[in-house]
Amino acid sequence: MSLEVKNISKLYGTQKALNEVSFSISKGEIVGFLGPNGAGKSTMMKILTGFIPPTSGTALIDGLDISTHSLTVRRKVGYLPEHNPLYLDMYVREFLQFMAGITGVSKARVDEMIEKTGLTPEVSKRIGQLSKGYRQRVGLAHALLHDPEVLILDEPTTGLDPNQIVEIRRLISDLGHSKTVMLSTHIMQEVEILCSRVIIINKGKIVADTSTENLRKASGRQTLIVELEKEVSNAWFKAIDGITRARREGKHWIIEAPAQVDVRKNIFEQAVRTKNAILNIQQRETKIEDIFRELTKVLPAQEST
């Protein structure tokens, strides 16, 4: 089961929410679909789930065009939208059984999803009485009821407490072994934990599509944490070949340099020349959050347009 997007564009009047976007996701992949607010993430997800049509381009799920095989495709897709729509006056089990009846799913499957999503303690409550986190669980259970082959999850851990987040992440990770999972989130730690690949969209265009490992390498820089015995100024580091930036954080200095340059020897030589001592030096892993900010930042000249 695969998901393939070919040159999808979406116009709202004169505003272009998506601009010829193309990508594919295979079975067994959990792909993070990232972007700032207004980048086009939710628009793409709504197109893939048949809620809105694209202006141009095609999207295929299991080789079926979502525009011409809409009902068949929807049976293959489970969707948890960002704003989770639920019948607040219904009880948890009642709601899930109602949805199961619509899709022809057995009551046994309802019980299985209640257990898997951790809803058992709240199953006899009205949905309107639940916390935001438990409502999110109800939405996830609903999305999984018909055992879809493709899962599209928009902010799935919104409103969950730390323990609930761990449980839902574990469930998504398990599902990723046998399903095609597209996950949108603003929590970069979630991407680091769950996703093997990242697609970053900004202003309706894809600006990155690669593995999480390659994304870090593509940043082209390294970060070092340095602690010195004696106090120094920023100029001390600027005098060292290869260092592009230095800033102080408490008793440590955060040093940036090109990825292909090993500046540790140069730092050591500078310490010897200035009769200082290096108490600690270590490399800090490049975070996806830092790369995301670089790829989606708004330049000062663009902010007023």
From TrEMBL:
SUPFAM superfamilies: P-loop containing nucleoside triphosphate hydrolases. SMART domains: AAA. Belongs to the ABC transporter superfamily. This is Protein involved in gliding motility GldA. InterPro entries: AAA+_ATPase, ABC_transporter-like_ATP-bd, DrrA1/2-like_C, Motility-assoc_ABC_GldA, P-loop_NTPase. Keywords: ATP-binding, Nucleotide-binding, Transport. PANTHER family: ABC TRANSPORTER, ATP-BINDING PROTEIN. GO terms for molecular function: ATP binding; ATP hydrolysis activity. It comes from Schleiferia thermophila. The keyword Nucleotidyltransferase does not apply. The lineage of its organism: Bacteria, Pseudomonadati, Bacteroidota, Flavobacteriia, Flavobacteriales. PROSITE patterns: ABC_TRANSPORTER_2. Residues 3-228 form the ABC transporter domain.
